[in-house]
Structures are given as C-alpha cells and as structure tokens.
C-alpha cells in the first residue's frame, strides 16, 4: 500500500524546502539541502540550482512508520503550471502549501479551485510561521470564503508566537476538531456535537479518512518547514488519515504516464503511476495514446461519426527505476499504487496509459499566452534541423511548447506560458543540446471565433482521380464553450469511414483560422458531403475539409479573442488611486479595494497584452514594496483595431490551387 502525494504551492511558499524536510525526517537523506544554495534533492537541473526555482516536477520516495510514501514536488511558478496539471492524474491527495505572511495569492486560488473542482483530496500546510506578518487565522478565513462551502477546513494544530523566531505550534484536540468538522454534514455527529460530546478515537479513525477522501473535509496544519516545525506531525497525520492507493486500485493492469523526460543513455523515460497490476523489466506493454482515449459525451450530442482510432502501440520496458534522495535505483518492477520511471517506451506521450485505461482527471492550469519564433545562433545549414529536433524533444516533455516547423521554413514557432519560461528554455537548449538559440520578441497568443452563423463548402473533384465534397455549418457559442462537432450523413451519401476522415481533419483545421489563430467557442455541424465510388481516394477528404472549414469561416466572419489575467495586487495604501487609474487605462476591471492598515489589496481582471510587463513596473512604482500575483482568467472579444494576426504556417486553403498542390506534395513550403 502506498500514498502518492503532490506538493503544490505558489512560488516561494516553501514546498521544495518542505519536501527536503520530509526526506530528512524519514531518514532518506542525512543533511538538509538548501534552495538558495542549489543543494536540494528534487531540484536537479542546473538552471534550477542556479535560479533557486523548480521548473520541472520531481519524485522522491520515503517510509514513515512502516508506510510507503511517494512525493511529487511540483514547480510553484505559474509559467510551469503545466507540470502541476499533468501530475494531478497521479495523486492520491495533494498538500497545498501556503506562505503564512503572504496570504493567498492568485495562483494559490487557482490551485485550490482545481483541487476542489476535480475532487482531489487535499491537506493545507501553512508554512513560514516565523516570518513577520504571519497570519494563520486570516488565511483560514480566506480559505473558507474561497471554498464557498464546498469543503470544511479542519485545523489540526495552532501557532504559538506567530511571526517570530521563537514560533511554535500546539496540537488541537483531534477528537473535538473532528467532531466539529464532521457535524457540518453528518446529522448523527451533529446531534452529538450539540450535546457537547465528542466522537471516540475509533469513530474518528473510521469517519475522518472517508470524509477527507470524499473531499468534505480539508485538514489544515501549520508549521515552519525551514526549521522542521510541524513536519513530524504532518507525516503522522498523512499515514493515519490521508487517502492511500487502495482507494483508486483497479482490477486490470493499468497505469498513467504523467511525465516524460529524456536521458542520453536511457533515451525516453516515462514516469508512471500504476493503478492496477504490475509491470517489470523486459515486459512488452500496450501503450494507449491520449488521443485514442474515448471520452464520454452527452448522448444527445453524440450524433457524429467518431474518429477512427489509431491502433495501440506496444513497447518493451528496458528498465524500471525508483527515485530516492536524488538517486535512481533499478527497481525491476512497479506494482499497483506505486510510482516509477520506466525506460524503453519510445511511443509514450504525457497522458498515455499502459495496459488499459483507468479513471483519470484533467484540469487546465497552464495556458500558453506568448508565441516566439526560434532560430539557431549558428548559421550552419544543419543548425535549424538540430534546433527543431531539440524543441520537438522538449515538446514531448512540455506539450504546451508545441514546437512547429516544416522543412523549408526559416524559423520554428513555439508557445510559452511566460517570460521566465523563455529564459529557462534557452538555458535548457544550451545545457542539454549544446545549441544556442535566439528567440524573437514575444507576441500575445490570441484566439478567434465565428462572428455569426454561417455555412461553407469544399469541393475537390479535379484533377482526377479524386472526389470529395464537404459542407459545414458553424454556430457561435458562449466564451469558454470550446468546440463541438456534430452531423452524421447517410453512409450511401458519404461512407462513414470518409466521415471519420472529415472529423479528424476538422480537428486539425482548428489550429489556424482566418487570422492565423486557434478557432474556438463554436458548434460545427457536417450538413453535406459526398464521395465517388470510383474516383474517391481516402486522402481526398483531408484536402477538401480544410477548404470547407475556411470557406465557412469566411461566411461567418471571425472575431479575435484576447486573453485575460486575474491579478491580485498588495501595495501601500497611498498607491491605491494610481493603481486604479493604471488598471482602468489598461482596459481592466477592478473590484472595490480592500484596505487594512496601511496596505491595500486590489483584485482585477486585465487584458494580458496591456499588463505583460506590469510586475516590473509595479516594483519600480512602489520601490519594491508592492507585490503582484496573476493567473489566467479566460478570453473575451478583442476591441476592433487591437490585436494582431499570426502568419500562416503552410498553404492557405482559401488559395485553392496552391492548397491542392501543397496538400498533394507537389508544392514545397519553400515555394509558397
């Protein structure tokens, strides 16, 4: 039996220090490393040691009171939230670390919302009790407000001498605390609580773990990871009351790949959480691509021909490794409930399953908002392909990079979640591949959506032999809707296998609309199409569908959408008026300021394009006394005259003759 926990936090909350303390307390390491000195076990990359921040998730294993625990230490900076997002599928529960003097930042809110939304059990650890301004009671009030009655926060201990070097903790009466928390939703316990009685130890041990697993209760502990304060109590509570791997165990052999990395000697390494069965060295396993995992849909909307599934891949495991204290050992086997690094799965992708599909979670935490063009500093003809291969490998590890390059293009387009990621990526390329890359100034990633209802057709019947006709109807939908695909034609009008090709090609078309951006928030219906029993080749519909897609967009018109950020500013009160003016001038919307003493807190929603460099400006404006935290908020219509188009990659289907030649391979990218 195992417990798989992820340590989540906003940057600088102390989660890597907490991980280090847990490894030390359990005897895995003999000395405690320092983030500042670059000596922690879970920050292994050179750039992590130099910058003192985590940019990749890292796993470590320990034992406490005979119980096995796997820890996934995740990055805290919002630019690397994709690492956190992918780790959620591997967790039995999360430990959300909050810095006691810093209150709850925007990214912390985002993490808490994710855990609540997808029902991942969680425990809160309020850290840095020794820092001036520590306010545990204030954080508890804010947590309760943010959770909106979706969970009950149950304090396990309380701070003493908060905000000083002599800080300490005192344990709460667990039986009383559990009785009070359970009474919020358990009528029998509520009756007991009203009579001033408490549950017995046996009853608490029976009821509390289930309530935590059902996410009805969220335990809250406080301490100081740097001093080791509260870490023993945290480990004790984890092994006694937090969920273990048996809660998610499956009958069939199944595991999810939550991280990919590359090693010069071992090649691709897939980090796997096993839910059922076991695999061992030299086993041949089925690898199910995330693209092939069927999704449940509303039966009333399931009226389209499904995309033909790509056959499963099979790969041979060469080695199974376990991480402990910064070292890897050859484990030989990974069993149900455990986490390990598996070598040899060359076809593996993040989100792939091995064996069979098991229940999983998906909640977007990262949102690429910047796009840059990458070119090698070296002008040698082979330099660009080498850089393209390096970025393709890094895209395997961080899919949000989504590097795109076609042979013949002079640059590689990549997506970024922030400016810090840009710096880290350049360092990784040089450190790992010995390639110096130049990035263009970043541009904001917009999206686009149909402006009105419309229809369009794509006809590909010349030059023969070919025959494919596709007709779509698009309907705009509300922001955040995404894309849905509908429509099933009679098989004798258009073979179902060809309709599957249309569906697959449609999904590819979404990448570039009239303005060159991803198209979203609309409903597509296949309303017409035909094949020819003699002249149609299956690939003809991959030529006709993009023409139909773009022609439909022309009929609808396309509206640019700009990304928004939710921003929280904590600043000296005298800056309140100046900050409100900045937000309004930047087309932002702000809640009423909250003033406490000589400090003001502002919550605002702002367009990303206007506030990309706002943190630096805020620091200068306030002489470093103000702080700003942000998280992605959504998209809205971009005002006319603002925004920008993106250069199209490949031929434009609206240029029919060039498109057909390019799609058939008769025209190269260089000739466009």
What order do the helices and strands come in, and which of them pair?
Layout (H helix, E strand, L loop, with lengths): L1 E8 L5 H11 L20 H6 L6 E7 L2 E7 L7 H7 L5 E7 L6 H12 L4 E6 L8 H12 L4 E4 L1 E4 L7 E4 L2 H9 L4 H8 L6 H13 L3 E6 L8 H11 L12 E10 L3 E10 L1 E3 L3 E5 L24 E4 L2 E6 L2 E4 L2 E3 L3 E5 L9 E3 L14 E7 L6 H15 L14 E5 L2 H15 L3 E3 L3 E2 L2 E4 L3 E7 L7 E9 L6 E4 L9 H14 L8 E2 L2 E10 L8 H17 L1 E15 L3 H10 L3 E2 L3 E3 L2 E9 L6 H9 L4 E11 L18 H8 L9
Parallel strand pairs: 1-3, 1-4, 4-5, 5-9, 6-9, 24-28, 27-29
Antiparallel strand pairs: 2-3, 7-8, 10-11, 10-19, 11-18, 12-17, 13-14, 13-19, 15-16, 15-18, 20-21, 20-22, 20-23, 24-30, 25-26, 26-29, 30-33, 30-34, 31-33, 32-33
Helix pairs in contact: 6-8, 12-13
């Amino acid at each position: 039996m195992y417990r798989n926990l992820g340590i989540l936090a906003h940057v600088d909350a102390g989660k890597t220090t907490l991980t280090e303390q847990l490894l030390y307390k359990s005897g895995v390491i003999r000395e405690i490393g320092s983030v500042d000195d670059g000596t922690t076990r879970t920050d292994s990359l050179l750039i992590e040691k130099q910058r003192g921040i985590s940019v990749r998730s890292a796993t470590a294993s320990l034992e406490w009171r005979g119980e096995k625990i796997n820890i996934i230490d995740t990055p805290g900076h919002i630019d690397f939230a994709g690492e956190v997002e992918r780790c959620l599928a591997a967790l039995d529960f999360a430990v959300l670390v909050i810095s006691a003097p810093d209150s709850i930042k925007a990214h912390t809110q985002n993490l808490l919302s994710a855990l609540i939304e997808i029902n991942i059990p969680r425990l809160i650890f309020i850290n840095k009790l020794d820092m001036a301004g520590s306010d545990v009671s204030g954080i508890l009030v804010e947590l309760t407000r943010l959770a909106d009655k979706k969970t009950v926060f149950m304090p396990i201990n309380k701070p003493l001498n908060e905000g000083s070097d002599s800080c300490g903790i005192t344990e709460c009466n667990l039986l009383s605390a559990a009785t009070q928390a359970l009474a919020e939703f358990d009528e029998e316990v509520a009756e007991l609580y009203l009579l001033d009685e408490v549950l017995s130890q046996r009853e608490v041990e029976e009821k509390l773990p289930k309530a935590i697993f059902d996410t009805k209760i969220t335990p809250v502990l406080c301490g100081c990871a740097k001093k080791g304060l509260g870490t023993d109590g945290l480990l004790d509570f984890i092994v006694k009351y937090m969920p273990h791997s048996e809660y998610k165990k499956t009958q069939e052999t199944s595991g999810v790949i939550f991280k990919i990395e590359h090693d010069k000697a071992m090649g691709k390494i897939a980090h796997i959480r096993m839910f059922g069965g076991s695999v061992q060295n030299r086993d041949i396993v089925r690898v199910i691509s995330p693209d092939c995992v069927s999704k449940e849909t509303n039966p009333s909307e399931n009226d389209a021909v499904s995309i033909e599934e790509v056959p499963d891949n099979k790969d041979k495991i060469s080695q199974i490794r376990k991480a402990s204290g910064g070292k890897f050992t050859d484990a030989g086997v990974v069993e149900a409930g455990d986490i390990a690094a598996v070598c040899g799965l060359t076809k593996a992708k993040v989100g792939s399953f091995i064996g069979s599909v098991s229940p999983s979670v998906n909640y977007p935490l990262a949102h690429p908002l910047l796009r840059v063009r990458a070119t090698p500093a070296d002008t040698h003809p082979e330099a660009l392909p080498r850089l393209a291969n390096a970025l393709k490998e890094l895209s395997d590890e961080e899919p949000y990079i989504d590097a795109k390059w076609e042979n013949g293009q002079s640059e590689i387009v990549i997506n970024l979640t922030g400016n810090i990621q840009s710096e880290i990526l350049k360092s990784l390329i040089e450190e790992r591949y010995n390639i110096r890359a130049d990035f263009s100034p970043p541009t904001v990633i917009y999206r686009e959506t149909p402006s009105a209802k419309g229809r369009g057709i794509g006809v590909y019947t010349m030059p023969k032999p070919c025959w494919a006709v596709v007709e779509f109807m698009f309907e705009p939908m509300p922001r955040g809707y995404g894309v849905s695909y509908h429509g099933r034609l009679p098989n004798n009008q258009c073979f179902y296998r060809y309709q599957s090709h249309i569906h697959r090609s449609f999904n590819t078309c979404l990448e570039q609309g009239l303005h060159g951006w991803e198209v979203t928030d609309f409903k597509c219906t296949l309303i017409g199409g035909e094949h020819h029993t003699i002249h149609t080749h299956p690939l003809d519909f991959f030529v006709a569908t993009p023409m139909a897609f773009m022609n439909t967009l022309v009929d609808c018109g396309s509206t640019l959408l700009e990304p928004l950020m939710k921003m929280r500013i904590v600043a000296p009160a005298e800056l309140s008026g100046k900050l409100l003016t900045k937000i309004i001038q930047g087309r932002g919307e702000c809640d009423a300021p909250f003033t406490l003493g000589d400090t003001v807190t502002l919550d605002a929603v702002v367009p990303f394009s206007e506030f990309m460099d706002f943190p630096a400006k805020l620091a200068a404006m306030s002489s470093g006394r103000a702080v700003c935290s942000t998280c992605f908020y959504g998209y809205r219509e971009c005002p006319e005259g603002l925004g920008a188009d993106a250069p199209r990659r490949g031929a434009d289907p609206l240029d029919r003759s060039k498109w057909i030649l390019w799609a058939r391979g008769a025209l190269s990218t260089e000739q466009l």
